[in-house]
Amino acid sequence: MSGILIRKFRKGDFENYVDLLMLTSTEEYSNIGRNDVSKMLKIMDKRWIWVTEVDGSAIGFITVQPDHGMMHLVWLDVHPTYQRMGFGSALLKEAILAGKNVGIGPALVEVWVGNDKGLGFYDSHGFRKRKFLQNYYANGLSAYEMVKDI
């Protein structure tokens, strides 16, 4: 994986991230549009967003929101062309290390119940299902809350 860079979010990344969220989160956000996704991303603390690039193109993002001493992983998205190549793992490791360095943990993420790839990904990184969240998403989809001690 040469030419790979993980870096902090920059202002110019915003539209690319919204595009990627709309592409990869079709089930969770099936009832909201691009403007709603943009509004959600705008309120995120950009200091807690990392980007992975391949040959100068942003192909993945992770967004974390520290919350009461926990690392809430809000979004982890990798363009479908680059999934299952280690980019999501690299982003997750970068974010967890950053949280660990400032004393934040455990890590928490919600994954919709039909997302077998996502559930398997987090399980392989040491996350465990902690709670079932009935009708978690606005469109009625349920999710699992998954946690990992860090």
Your description of this structure?
The structure is a single chain. With 150 residues, the chain is of the alpha+beta class. It has a seven-stranded mixed beta sheet, with helices on both faces. It has a single domain, classed as 3-Layer(aba) Sandwich (Aminopeptidase), CATH 3.40.630.30. The model has no long low-confidence stretch (mean pLDDT 87). α1 packs across α2. The protein contains four helices and seven strands, in the order βααβββαβαββ.
Quick description:
The chain starts with a strand and ends with a strand. The chain has one domain (4-148): Aminopeptidase. The protein has helices spanning 14-24, 34-42, 87-101, 116-124; strands at 4-8, 49-54, 57-67, 70-78, 107-112, 128-133, 143-148.
Descriptive terms for the model:
alpha+beta; 150 residues; 4 helices; 7-stranded mixed sheet; globular; Aminopeptidase
Strand and helix order? EHHEEEHEHEE
Q: Order of strands in the sheet with the most strands?
A: 1-2-3-4-5-7-6
**CATH level-4 homologous superfamily:** Gcn5-related N-acetyltransferase (GNAT)
The proportion of residues in beta strands is 25-35%
Global mean pLDDT:
87
Individual helix count: 4
Task: Calculate the terminal CA-CA distance, rounded to whole Å.
Answer: 27 Å
The coarse silhouette is globular
Q: How much helical structure, as a percent, in the residues? A: 25-40%
Oligomerization status of the protein chains: single chain
Number of domains: 1
Q: Using DSSP, what is the number of strands?
A: 7
CATH topology: Aminopeptidase
Please identify the top-level CATH class: Alpha Beta
Low-confidence region ranges: none
Rg, please? 15 Å
Question: Structural class, judged by helices and strands?
Answer: alpha+beta
Could you describe the largest sheet, including whether it forms a barrel? 7 strands, mixed
Assigned CATH architecture: 3-Layer(aba) Sandwich
